[in-house]
Specification:
The protein is α+β, with helices and mostly antiparallel strands and 65 residues long. It is 23% helix and 22% strand. It has one domain: Alpha-Beta Plaits, CATH 3.30.70.
């Protein structure tokens, strides 16, 4: 799994951080998403998919390998 973010879409709601705090964080300046793990471990896959589903602007794309 690979996590890809479209920062132009991100509005900084933090839903991703709440769903997968080991994978996502927020930029201190503008609140936009920061990816901590571009290739998260299997133990994080479900949380990352939840984060992508919950993103109100669809800024998170999950690529399966």
């Amino acid at each position: 799994m690979r996590v890809v973010i479209d920062l132009d879409k991100c509005c900084g709601t933090g839903q991703c951080v709440m769903a997968a705090p080991e994978v996502f964080d927020q930029n201190d300046e503008d609140g936009t998403v920061v990816v901590l793990q571009e290739f998260p471990g299997r133990d994080q896959h479900a949380a990352v998919r939840t984060a992508a589903r919950n993103c109100p602007t669809e800024a998170i794309t999950v690529l399966d390998s």
